[in-house]
Amino acid sequence: MRLQTRRSLRTLPALLVVTALLVAACGDGNSDRDGVSVVATTTVLGDVARNVVGDGGEVEVLLPVGADPHDYQASSRQVAAIQEADLVIANGLGLEEGLTDVLESAAADGANVLTVAPLLDPLPFGADHDNDHSDDAEAGDDPHVWLDPLRMAAATRIVAQELSKIDGSADWTARGNVYADALTTADEDIQATLEVVPPANRKLVTNHDALGYFASRYGFEVVGVVIPGGSTLAEPSSAELTELVAVVEQEQVQAVFAETTNPEVLADAVAAEAGGEVIVVELFTGSLGEPGSGATTLIEMLTTNAQRIAQALS
After folding, report:
1. pLDDT tens across 187-215, in order?
2. What are the phi and psi torsion angles at 29 (to 5°)?
């Protein structure tokens, strides 16, 4: 039964693509659409796309707010949207694990899929720490590029450049530069926010290996992660959790940083086992937040995270 289930799951993306093509064939097409049509996989990339596209077209985001990008399957309607879009913006580097086959099939069928993370000078997993319980040689490059605002400024310009190839009706470069400049300003604000954290306290323990770019950009060190490797789909062993508790105690870590897209149970357990005054602080990592959360845009998300980290570690 287990082998049959796995085989069925592997064939699901192909079935979705076939269904999507039938849906597209029976639809009204794109004749009544104004401007460009863009599909973004994640809420973060959707925010980038909306800031560049503006009133020059439509942007659809596949993942809902709060969804884990490591564990999401597209609907047949969403697969049809990918096939019909002028531009599909994906992160890549293994982030959208449940969408990989769909995106690859769409690209093979002629969809214009732009995968941005490999273009942003990606870091290898574990580049800033040694206690992530993962095999860095197998893990490859870290996909969590959006937690560095300067990389996302570069991503914005890449999206604008791609739109310029598709549609000459708007100055996409100028639009991209406006948002890229806003991200650069956000980077300066984040640096100022984090100045209150002394060097001895710049040690991060995170729910999964998502803060490597943040650590590299702002002079922190990730000394351990709760969930091994770079995906939230892995499961830590009891031995790994015991090792992590020892790291927290040895490094005198002040906080364990959990995520809004995943349960805090394991982070709470590590903090409780470490004893002392270790607190658990929730960050926005895999998704933007709901209205009123302080993370409804990428810039809000980054600045809110910085404020929470500064408060926890200062």
Report:
1. 999 999 999 999 999 999 998 899 999 99
2. 80, -165
